Amino acid sequence: MAGMFGIHGKEISLLDAGAGIGSLSVALIAELASRQQPPRRIRATLYEVDSMLAQLLERTMAACSGLCADRGIALEYEALREDFIDAATSACALPLTRTPRIDFDCAILNPPYRKINGDSDTRRALSAAGIEVNNLYSAFLALAARLLKQDGELVAITPRSFCNGPYFKAFRRDFFSRMVLHQIHVYESRSDAFRDDEVLQENLILHAVKTRRRPESVIISISLGPLDPNPRMWRVPYGDVIHPRDPEMVVHVIADEAGRKAADVAGQLSSSLEHLRLSVSTGRVVDFRARPFLRATPETGTVPLVYPFNLEAGRVVWPKPHPRKPTAITNEDATGDLLIPSEIYVVVKRFSAKEERRRIVAALYHPDQVRCPVVGFENHLNYFHIDGRGLPLPLARGLTAFLNSTLADTYFRNLSGHTQVNAQDLRRLKYPSREQLLLIADRVGEDLADQRAVDRTVEEVLDLVYSV
Q1: I need a surface site. Which of 145, 175, 275, 414 has the fewest CB within 10 A?
Q2: DSSP letter at 201?
Q3: Hey, do 2-257 and 273-467 end up sharing a CATH topology, with the first three levels equal?
């Protein structure tokens, strides 16, 4: 993180919000001190509300000050036992008070990861400062961006969740109206970097600069975890990372050559679900709420209840015994709103297990497998439909093949670091045209389980169309 900064000068002011014992600040100060032309003076402002950590932070910075003096660098520091959000929102609301400073050259952050309650004082203070966020880490980033001077630099390690999705849309618009990306480093492991916080998503380090001058490219690097000795690194055009005409300013993390190819193809996909006249919804059956109507095995008066474990090799397999899950739901007036007509649908898992290779796992539900008037899809599934009814079989087969292709999975990974695939995520994707989906279906046939054949067919159809 310290090595990402390009900041230089005789005097450098440093912000570390949520400093802990000062590890990040010391790393950055050591980096600055090791340069051929180190700064003569460093002013560090550090925030830490935990009293025990704050005591250790004082010791760390005192020792660091002595080492800087040996190098001829004057280190001035303030270790503030204050809430950073309270202090920073006050500074943004009353900039003339100049407390805290609002002209930092650089900020280095490992912000806390915790949701912000909608009716909390913190949320109200942030709103008063013009910041609409739902997590502390995005609040720290938004405030740090405001406290930097022009051309100031920020490096932070955070979860990747801000990169896409509606919850962080306001944050992205706010942050990237001030900052431009220079580098993104992705931790491929969902658990290593944030093991103690149980954050089951990819984590990243971002380097951004406060300027309106957008660079031509962004450096993307990736490693398995913090101790991986061989990170991979390359440059990606800035417009491929944040599309210039995207109002939601989604950050596409293109992690390898497969990601670049997927981005190139996805950039040419012309159809949205609206263009295809398709909709996607989340399964209506929340099992713990519908418990009185669930049955362990099928019986008279019940219909299939489809769970994620029923998705197998591109098809919905039912019934499929499960020791802890029911397989059927009663068909009666009380469950009428939970069930949909038993027709042809494409079903997608909402959550992928840590050991699964794919984020998007899709399957074709065909009513011929079980003769019944209606069916229930459990809440951990999404399903594609046409105004609440089923899809034509060829279209459903082509859509299933596309979603299960390596190309689509890589395209989705460019957009999202989550293990979760929400209906909103599926609405954001671009899709092949209806004609292309039908051509994919015709070439794949009924065998949706052959991954190599699916991948080959999808790539051939899309490459053929675009080359023409």
Answers
A1: 275
A2: B
A3: no
Res 463: pLDDT: 75
Beta strands (DSSP E) in 224-342 are 232-237, 279-282, 294-295, 302-306, 311-312, 315-316, 328-330, 340-341
pLDDT tens digits, 355-400: 467 889 999 999 998 889 999 999 999 999 999 999 999 999 999 9
CB 421 within 8 A of CB 368: no
Domain ranges of the chain: 2-257, 273-467
CA-nearest of 188, 138, 182, 142 to 163 is: 138
Residue bearing tokens 């015709």: 442
DSSP H or E run through 382: strand 381-385
Which tokens go with 267? Answer: 């950039």
User: Both ends of the chain: CA-CA distance in Å?
Assistant: 45
Cβ partners under 8 Å of residue 112, min gap 6: 18, 136, 137, 140
**What span, in angstroms and rounded, lies between the C-alpha atoms of 281 and 94?**
45
Measure the CA angle with vertex 318, ends 314 and 322; round to 5°. Answer: 105
Chain segment 290-329, per-residue pLDDT in tens: 999 999 999 999 999 999 999 999 999 999 888 889 999 9
Q: Which two three-digit tokens encode residue 5?
A: 């900064």
How would DSSP label each residue in 121-149? HHHHHHHHTT---SBHHHHHHHHHHHHEE
Architecture of domain 273-467: Alpha-Beta Complex (3.90)
Strands 311-312 and 345-349 turn out to be: unpaired
Q: Which CATH architecture has domain 2-257?
A: 3-Layer(aba) Sandwich (3.40)
CA distances for 199 relative to 23, 114, 159, 384, angstroms: 21, 10, 8, 29
What is residue 259's predicted lDDT score, i.e. its pLDDT?
74
Gap between the Cα atoms of 205 and 1, Å rounded: 7
Nearest Cα neighbor of 377 from 315, 425, 316 is 316
Smallest CA-to-CA distance from 87 within 31, 129, 52 is with 129
pTM of the model: 0.77
Residue burial 379-388, b: 16+ Cβ < 10 Å; e: rest: bbbbbbbbee
